[in-house]
Amino acid sequence: MSVDGSLDRLRREGHIVIVGASLAGLRAAETLRDEGFTGALTIVGDEPHEPYDRPPLSKQVLLGRVPADHTTLPRRREVDAQWRLGVAATGLDMAAKRVHLADGAAVEYDRLLITTGVRARPWPHELEADLDGVFVLRTSDDAAGLHHRLSAGPRRVLVIGAGFTGSEIASACRERGLDVTVAERGSAPLVGALGGVVGEVAATLQREAGVDLRCGIMVTGLEGDSAGRLRRAHLSDGSSVEVEVAVVCLGATRNTEWLASSGLGAGPRGIACDAGCRAFDVRGIVTDDVFVAGDVARSPHPLFGYQFLSLEHWGNAVEQAETAAHNMISSSTDRRPHVWTPSFWSAQFGMNIKSVGVPPMADEIIVTQGSLAERRFTAVYGYQGRVIAAVTFDQAKWLEFYQQQIERAAPFPPEFTTVDRRPEGMHPVPAGFPDPSLPSHGPTVTLSGHSPSDRRISFTPLSA
Amino acid sequence: MTSVALLRQITDYANRADPYPLYAELRKTPVVRDEDGPYLVSTYWEIHHLLHDPRVSSDIRNLNPEAAAMTPAQGEDPNLPPTFLKLDPPEHDRLRRLTMRPFGPPHTPRRVYEMRGELGEIVSGLIDGFQGKQQIDLVDDFSYPFPVSVICRLLGIPREDEPRFHAWADTLAASIDPVRGSAEDQEAQLQTVRQARADLAAYLAGLIEERSRSPRDDMLSAMATGHGPDGQMSPVEMVSTAALLLIAGHETTVNLITNGMLTLLRNPDVLQRLRDDPDLAVPLVEELLRFEPPVQLLPQKTTLADIDIAGTTIPKGASLWLVLASGNRDPQRFLDPDRFIPDRPDNQHLGFSSGVHNCFGAPLARLEAQFALTELVRRLDNPRLVQDPPPYRQNAVLRGPRHLGITFDGLKP
Amino acid sequence: MRLVVDLNRCQGYAQCAFLAPEAFTMHGDEALMYDPQPDDAQRGNVLRAAQACPVKAITVEGMNGAPAAEKAGASHVG
C-alpha cells in the first residue's frame, strides 16, 4: 500500500515542476495531464514567450514569410499549470527538493523535469560579439533581430560555421538576394553531421546558389567602426571580407550551468540520464525524482552500444518528453525506455535533407539510390559492417526503409539491389568525417561515451 | 506456402459485392504464394513496408521468366513508353515531376485549389438534372459525368469528345482486371485493348499537337510547351501520360463517390451527421478511402532481390500483389476495422497507396468526393437504395458498383 | 490559429500544399514550409490539409479536442 499509495498521492496531489518552457517542456506538461496527473504543475522558462517552435526561425522567419513571434506551438490539450515565464532557474537543491529562481523565489517539487535545452554558442571574443551586426540564431528574439537587419539590405552577410543552421541562414540570405559569405572550418558544409562525401554535395548546392563559400578557414577577428558597427571580418588565410552582418553558427551549449553545484550529473555535454529519463547524480547513481528530456539530456542508446547520445532533434525532444512525463508518474514496472532512433531534417537551397541514425559514427558510405551529381539520392552509412545511418536528399519517402535497416543492424554494405541504383552506388567509400577531436560546428548528434558522469565537470558541494 | 487459388477467389465475380470476408481469410497468412504464381500480401504493415521498400519494382520487365509467363499481357502498345505508374525511379520520378509541374506544387500550387468553384458548379448542375425524377442511377447520372467533366477541363479535352473516349477508357480500365478467360477470349480481348489504346493515343496525339500550336490554360498545353530543369516529355511520353491521367481520372473517382453514397445509405446515422455538419466530409472521405478503397489491390509489382517478410521469402523477380483493401481492414492496425467511423482518428489508410507511387490525383479525388457527398446528402430528400447490394462492375482491381439506383422524395434547392 | 508540422514524419506528399496553399508551400520538390499561425479564415482549408496528410504530421490547435486558443498567461506570480 505504501509505495502504491505514495504514487497515487503524487498523481493526485503532488507537485511537479518543469524547468524549461520550450517544446519538450510543453509536450511533457500535456502528457502529464493526459495521463491523469491532477496535482500542481509549475512550468519555469527563462524566455518571456509561450513555448514556441524553433525550426521555422532559420527558414520561414528569415525569409520574411512568418513573423518571428508567430511560431508559438499549438497545444495538444489544455494544460492547467502555473507558468513562470521570463524567469530563469538559478539553482537546484536536491536534498530540499527545491528549485531556486532568478527573481529570488523558490519552488518545491515532488518530481522535477529538466528541459532547459541548449543555447547558441556565442562568438568567443566578447567585445567583437557585442558589435552591432553580430548575431546568433537560437531564440525568437534572435530571429526577429536578424530578420529586421536582413530586411535593411546589408551589402554582405557573413555566416560563421556551415552546420545546418548556418547553411539554412545562407540559403535564406540568397533567396532574399543578399550577398553572403560562409566561412567553415571543416572541408565542406555539414561535414560534421553528414561527412565529406555528402558535404561536397552541400558545397555544390551553396556555390550554385551564389554563396561565397570558403572552407578550411576560420574567422580570426571581427572588426567594427568607431560607432561599434561591424564592418569587416578577418580570416585565417590572411584575407578579409567587408560585412555588415555576421551570424555566428558555432553550435550550441547545454544550459546546465544553473546545476553546477547541485550534485546532479550535469556538465557542458548535458545531463546524463538512464533509458527511463531519470537523471544521474555526479556519483553515477540514478535519482528517482529528477527527470530530464530534450536537447539537454544525454541518454544511453541500445542501438549504438549504449553510448550516451546527445541529440538536438525536434522529434527526440517530443518523444523523450512524453516518455519522461509518463515515467514520472508511473510505477517502476510501468515505465518505458526512451529508444528513439535519431532523425532530423533540414530545408536549404530548395532541398529537403533528412537523416536517420548516427552518421558521425560511420566509417563508410554508399549511395544506394539516385546520384550525388543530381542532388537526389539516398546514401547509407556503415560502421563495422552494419548499417548505422542513412541520409536522403529529396528522397524522404525511402527513409523509413533504411531506418528499419538500422534498427535491425542490417549488414553493410547492403547486399541487395534497389531501384535507381547507379554505377556510383556499387561500392562503399570512406564517409569522410573529420577527426572528432577537432572542434567544428557541432553535429546534431553527439556520442559521448559510456560514462554517465561528464569528466569535464568537477563537483562542488552545495554550501551549507 | 501455396494456397488454393486465392487469386481466383478474389477475381471471382461472386465475391465482388463483399470481398472483405475473403480478405480476412487472406490475412491469416500475411504473405502467401497463390497457386497461380503471384505472392499476395494482405496485412497493413507488410504492405506499408513493401510500398517503401526500394527492392520492390513497379516495372514488370523485372519479373523473372516464370512469373512473366504467368502474368497476363495487358495489351501494351509497343509504340508507347510505359507510364510512370509502371516505371521505377529515376524514370518514374522524372516523368512524375514533369507531370506535376502543370498540376501542383511547387510550380502550380493553386490549380486544383482554384478549381473548387468549378467543382461546386458541376456538382450543382448534375444534381439539378435530377429534377422531376424519383429515381436515379447515381453512376450514370452523377458519379461518372462529374469526374469526367473535371478531368476534361483540367487536361483541356473538349467535353463533346467524351463519347469517343468513353468506350476507349472503359476498355482500358477493364484491361487492368486480372480475370483470365480461355486463350481465344484473352486474345480477342487483347485485340480490343490494343485497338482502344491506339485510337486513344491517336486522338490525344492530335490534341497535344494542336495545343502546342495554340496553347490554352490547361495541362496538355503546359505539358506541350513547358520547359523546366528536367526538360520536356517526349511526344510519346506526353501521349502515354495524358492517357494515364484521363483513364485514372475517370475510373477511380467514379467508384469513390459511388462507394461513398452506398456506404452513407447503409449507415443512415452517418448520413444524417454529414447533413448536419458538412465539415465531416473531410475525415469521412479519408475513412471511405480506408473502408471501400476504389483501388482494391496493386497487381504487377515485382522484387529486385529476395525479400524476407512475415516469415516468408519472396524470391527475386516474383510477381507481387499488394491487397490495399485488405490492409485497410487489418485489425492489427485499425481498431474495429469493419466499422465505418467517419471521424476515425489516426487514419493512415492505404487507399491512395504510399511511397513514391502514391496516387497522383489524390488531392483532386479528395475534393471531388467531399463536394459530391456533401451536396448529395444535402439536396436529396430521403434517399433510399433501390437494391442492396447493387450490381458491381466485373473489375476486381477498380472495384465499384456498375449501377446504384437511388430513390428519393424530392430535391432541396 | 496555431499549427505545427512534425517534419520528421513529413515525406513531402504535398497534399497540404494542394489543399491549403495559403498556409503550406513546397520549397522545391519535397521541402515543406508552412505558416505556423495562419489567418483564421484559413481554418477550413487547414483542417482539410491536416486530415489529408498521409502521415498525419500536422497538429492544429483545436483539432481532436485540443483547445482553440489557450493562453499561457505569462504569469510572474511571486
From TrEMBL, chain A:
Stretches for region Disordered: 420-464
Record carries keyword Oxidoreductase: yes
Keywords, comma-separated and alphabetical: FAD, Flavoprotein, Oxidoreductase
Domain of life: Bacteria
Keyword Thylakoid annotated: no
Limits of the FAD/NAD(P)-binding domain: 15-321
Gene Ontology MF term list: oxidoreductase activity, acting on NAD(P)H
Any one cellular-component term (Gene Ontology): cytoplasm
Cofactor(s) essential for the protein: FAD
Gene3D superfamilies xrefs: 3.30.390.30, FAD/NAD(P)-binding domain
Domain Reductase C-terminal: 344-415
InterPro entries (UniProt xref): FAD-oxidoreductase/Apoptosis (IPR050446), FAD/NAD-bd_sf (IPR036188), FAD/NAD-binding_dom (IPR023753), FAD/NAD-linked_Rdtase_dimer_sf (IPR016156), Reductase_C (IPR028202)
UniProt xrefs under Pfam families: Pyr_redox_2, Reductase_C
Protein name as catalogued: NADPH-dependent 2,4-dienoyl-CoA reductase/sulfur reductase-like enzyme
Species assigned in the record: Kitasatospora kifunensis
TrEMBL record, chain B:
Keywords: Heme, Iron, Metal-binding, Monooxygenase, Oxidoreductase
Keyword Oxidoreductase included in the entry's annotation: yes
Record SUPFAM superfamilies: Cytochrome P450
Pfam hit, one: p450
InterPro entries tied to this protein: Cyt_P450 (IPR001128), Cyt_P450_B (IPR002397), Cyt_P450_CS (IPR017972), Cyt_P450_sf (IPR036396)
Gene Ontology molecular function, alphabetical: heme binding; iron ion binding; monooxygenase activity; oxidoreductase activity, acting on paired donors, with incorporation or reduction of molecular oxygen
Family classification: Belongs to the cytochrome P450 family.
Protein name, as recorded: Cytochrome P450
Lineage: Bacteria, Bacillati, Actinomycetota, Actinomycetes, Kitasatosporales
TrEMBL record, chain C:
UniProt-listed SUPFAM superfamilies: 4Fe-4S ferredoxins
GO terms for MF: 3 iron, 4 sulfur cluster binding; metal ion binding
Cofactor: [3Fe-4S] cluster
InterPro entries: Fe-S_cluster_ET
Annotated keywords: 3Fe-4S, Electron transport, Iron, Iron-sulfur, Metal-binding, Transport
A Pfam family that the UniProt record links to this protein: Fer4_13
Organism domain of life: Bacteria
The keyword Cell membrane is assigned to this record: no
Name of the molecule in the record: Ferredoxin
Upper classification of the organism: Bacteria, Bacillati, Actinomycetota, Actinomycetes, Kitasatosporales
